[in-house]
Hints:
Layout: H1 3-24, E1 33-34, E2 50-51, E3 54-59, H2 65-72, E4 78-79, E5 87-91, E6 104-114, E7 118-127, E8 130-134, E9 137-142, E10 149-150, E11 154-158, E12 162-172, E13 177-184, E14 192-193, E15 199-201
Parallel strand pairs: 1-11
Antiparallel strand pairs: 2-15, 3-4, 3-6, 5-13, 6-12, 6-15, 7-10, 7-11, 7-13, 8-9, 8-12, 13-14
Amino acid sequence: MTLYLLDRIFLSVRAAAVLLLLMAAPAWADTPSFSGLKPAVPQPDAATLKPGLAVTYYGVEVNSLRKLEENMDYMDGTPGTPIPMLNYQVGAGNVLTSNSNDMVGADIKGFIHLKNPGRYMFMVHSNDGVRLTIGEKMLFEDPDVHADRFSDEIIVEISEPGWYPIHILYFEKKNTSTLELYWEAPGFGDMDYVPEEVFGHIGE
């Protein structure tokens, strides 16, 4: 069987798993809904943005985002290779774009392009702790050590298209790591990974 066919099968299985999760989840009326997110001011020049999200890594063994932030107050982080998109479910491999497979904190920043007004639905899949902030609003937090699990649907109403600041704080303690961000966005079709072309950061 070719590598292409294996990739197609893997993607189909993953899409089916996400669909089953959505079918079992509560109705939108019962899920968190956010509005009033603030676009970046001034808007970054898309021509000068670098692809992906900037990341700073911290070598820490912590059990919560609170402890990670305490360490970040006095530690110098190490800039890492930018993260193209959030599609990492790597088991015991290296965490994100770091060179470590355990005890990693990641401070991830940049912009996400929400080009169409309307309703966006996000979902986060994580192991371990994660906090997602877009447009200066915290949309989701699962702050402690945990096995792979999905957030509920996160509904976001966007009235003003453009680039929005995105900030993700994440840590992995030991064994396995996962950090994935899904969306269902106006003009982008069904639930899938947030694609790499909508991420950008200001590089040096």
